[in-house]
Amino acid sequence: MKRRHFIYTTALAGGGLMLSFQASISRAGSTMPLPAAEGVEELGDFIKIMPNGDIMFQVIKHEMGQGVSTSMAQILVEELCADWEKVKVDFPLINMARYENQKNGGYGTGGSCTLTYAWDLMRTAGATARQMLIEAAAAQWNIASTECYAHNHYVIDKRSKKKLYFGELASLAAKRSIPQQVKLKDTGDFTVIGKGKSAKLVPLMVTGKLKYGLDTQVPGMLYAVIARCPVFKGKLRKFDASKALGVKGVKKVFSTAPIGGLQLHAYLPYDIRAGVAVVADSFWAAQKGREALIIDWDEGQNAQSASEDFEKLAQQRAMRRTDPTGFIGDENAISDLAHVRKTLHASYVFPHQVHSCMEPLNCTAHMHADGCDIWTGSQAPNLIVDEMERVFRIPKEKIKVQLFPSGGGFGRRVYPDMALEAAYISREAGNLPVKMMWTREDDQQCNLAHLFQHMEYQAALDMNDKLYAWYEKEMVTYTWAAKYADPQLPSMLYDIPNIRLDTENMIEDELVHSSAWRGVVCHGKFLSECFIDEIAARLKVDPVAFRLSMLKEGRDVFVGGEYVLSSSRLIKVIKLVTAKAGWGKSLPLGKGMGIAAAPYGNSFCAVVAEVSVASQKLKVDKITIAVDCGKLVNPSGASNQIVGGIVWGLTALFYGGLPIRNGRAIQKNFHENKLLRMDECPSMEVHFVDSQDERPWGIGEISSPLGVPAVLNAIFAATGKRIRKVPIVLEELGGV
After folding, report:
1. Same domain for 235 and 196
2. Which pLDDT score, from 0 to 100, does residue 28 have?
3. Residue 51's pLDDT band (boundaries 50, 70, 90)?
4. How many CA within 13 A on the CB side of residue 466?
5. Do 192 and 295 share a domain, yes or no?
């Protein structure tokens, strides 16, 4: 962060300091500033210091319950030397031209990268405001700024110990020029970063004061629901709206087919199911109107299909080899008879999953002559603006988006379809403000889902029973535009001489459109940890000892993606988790322990599960997790993230999947598509490696894909039975 020209200040009306950041874009190695937008008071400025001393931290990242607003505030407060209790969080109107840049801000929230990208920016923001407050105080006292320091919301004279409150100094600081260089605090002096903090938004949540997209109220607003085709890729033939229009309160009924179908966004394709929109003066009237519709669907070829058919197709195709997505050593070593003496083979399946966000999808839109206003919770409002421009030909500068926190995102709220539906309905309703809402049944039956993965594994042992070759075939329903991802290897660090990955895309054959889900592609990939256990069992060695025998201290590995991975860091989390879990302790009959470990981005995680199996019943007794996520900003929030990820993984294990019959999702609501309940959650312990890294790495998604393989390995330890597909079938467990 060597450039400071993108920082500027504004004095608030009535006194105070507003510190703003002008985003910049890297072009051909240089930093090119974007022009500052007019009307600063309306923008997503990071810091406002009010005359009474209150600090308003304006968050541009999406808060969906993961606590990112709190962690970002901690980084800011640390450098500002402010009183934590005086800091409040707000979510301003977005401004794409100013902030949409992944290096210096950006609205996109996903991939567990928010704190990684925000680290430098938030520290610089806090340090800059601190320095300006110090200079303002020094000018008041007519001394050098070096004779002052900031502490707990005051600037203090080192010699006389006189002090001035931040609120007193805010308007004076706003008049000062921006310092070209600021000194960041030494990490050893941190007093806020690394301390557990309750989420800033909790008081607002529990009192009902925190507003979500679903709470939006606009004068003259109507309500809308959509009857969507129940079969993926189906179309609308015709509909009869006469009875619906007879429902009191129903205003209009019309087709959404003009915006329906697969939307081929450059890197994130998504689907809008064709349907019929019902617009009314209340949600209840819209619902009753939808129930009265008579619709004739052209359900297409998927109407005869079931999820079992798709899974069989994936299994058949998985038996053939395709061009490798990536390899090291000999790409055909798995069948090299000059070295191979034994081979092992296993298939694992991780099916589609429903996102089950507590707040169903919704968006309020108002199309008008000057553009469009949008109110919603979104992980990627930049995609909303891009697609609004593409579909409706509205200039980006005329699209205003008010970004709200959301009740769960998990990757689903990256996609902009709900905004396009709402904008289209607003236009067709006569350019009136309309709140478009999904019901829970819509969410369960007509939504995008987590991708499907069928994994085929082969392992070759040499004459000394050493693991000589690893072959992995992945059948997957990617949603990204490329046929394959960039060249890559399996996401593991084991020192195997020959490794090959084949990836085959099944997006043309799937029965539901795939999308991101917490952990994205790793849920299927990390089932490789089960196959590692199978090899250890064949060799009759301890699973942990087997893993450690294939990991070498100091060995760095590039498997594709953004980071070079460290074997030493993976070894640390494995040793920490096994020590904390008591790996190797004597267990009674019917109990077992299992482990799974892997990198995610530049973080590392290991999970040990302890289970009991008796009379076709499975109880997960305890989960122990060790994590290396670099600099730990908020241990409390990070622990909650890790535990939450495990809960989602166990939900997939016990209740997950998306069963389809005759092209339709058969589960309608939570009574059929269950989530893990509080009384089903095991005892969980989270332990963090004392990392020497100078910045934080991702935490939000790393644990969710590892809970399943850890439990499956524990089931084998308890019963001797291998479960290779989720959700588990309890009747297959047996027990004592």
Report:
1. no
2. 24
3. confident
4. 11
5. no
Burial 86-117 (b: 16+ CB within 10 A, else e): bbbbebbebbbebbbbeebbbbbbbbbbbbbb
Which of 64, 63, 108, 54 has the alpha carbon at shortest distance from 84?
54
Residue among 41, 36, 23, 90 at smallest CA distance from 61 = 90
Query: Residue 587: what are its φ and ψ, rounded to 5°?
Result: -120, 145
Please answer whether residues 657 and 666 qualify as being in contact, where contact means their C-beta atoms are separated by less than 8 angstroms: no
Specify whether 144 is located in the same domain as 83.
yes
Domain end position, chosen among 185, 206, 227 = 206
| Nearest in space to 91 (alpha carbons), one of 6, 221, 203, 210 | 210
Spatial contact of 237 and 255, defined as CB atoms under 8 Å apart: no
- Could you tell me the two tokens for 386? 């891009």
pLDDT digits (tens, 9 = 90+) for 399-449: 999 999 999 999 999 999 999 999 999 999 999 999 999 999 999 999 999
Q: Verify that 375 and 332 share a domain, yes or no.
A: no
How do residues 304-346 score in pLDDT, each as one tens digit? 999 999 999 999 999 999 999 999 999 999 999 999 999 999 9
> Alpha-carbon distance 714 to 704, whole Å?
17
Residues 38 and 98: beta-carbon distance below 8 Å? no
Q: Are 711 and 592 in contact (CB under 8 A)?
A: no
Place of tokens 């070593």: 333
Cα end-to-end distance, the chain, whole Å: 61
Q: Which contacts (CB < 8 Å, 24+ apart) does range 286-290 have?
A: 286/223, 286/224, 286/225, 286/249, 286/250, 287/225, 287/439, 288/247, 288/250, 289/244, 289/245, 289/247, 289/249, 289/250, 289/253, 290/225, 290/226, 290/227, 290/244
pLDDT in tens, 261-272: 989 887 788 999
Q: Do residues 543 and 579 share a domain?
A: yes
CA angle 408, 409, 412 (to 5 degrees): 140
d(C-alpha 606, C-alpha 574), whole Å: 6
- pLDDT at res. 346: 98
The CATH number assigned to the domain holding 219 equals 3.30.365.10
- The two tokens of residue 567 are 């074997």
Which structural domain, as residue segments, surrounds residue 111?
Answer: 7-206
pLDDT score for 308: 97
Q: Which residues contact 535 (CB under 8 A, 6 or more apart)?
A: 344, 459, 461, 467, 546
Return phi, psi of residue 292, to 5°.
-85, -5
pLDDT of 37 > 80? The answer is no
**pLDDT score of 39 more than 90:** no
Comparing CA positions, the residue from 441, 559, 398 lying closest to residue 492 is 559
Q: For residue 696, what is the DSSP state?
A: B
Tally of CB atoms within 10 A around 669: 13
Confidence of residue 482 (pLDDT cuts 50, 70, 90): low
Handedness of CA 471, 476, 480, 482 (dihedral sign): positive
Number of H helices, E strands in the chain: 17, 36
Give residues with Cβ within 8 angstroms of 230, minimum separation 6: 297, 299, 445, 446, 663, 664, 665
Domain assignment present for 443 = no
Residue 635 sits at φ, ψ, to 5 deg, of: -55, -35
Is the distance from CB of 467 to CB of 349 less than 8 angstroms?
Answer: no
DSSP state for residue 36 in the 8-state scheme:
P
719 close to 707: Cβ distance less than 8 angstroms: no
Mean pLDDT of the chain, nearest integer:
90
* Gap between the Cα atoms of 414 and 5, Å rounded: 31
Reported as a single tens digit per residue, the pLDDT across 514-566 is: 999 999 899 999 999 999 999 999 999 999 999 999 999 999 999 998 899 99
Looking at 153, 186, 206, the residue that finishes a domain is: 206
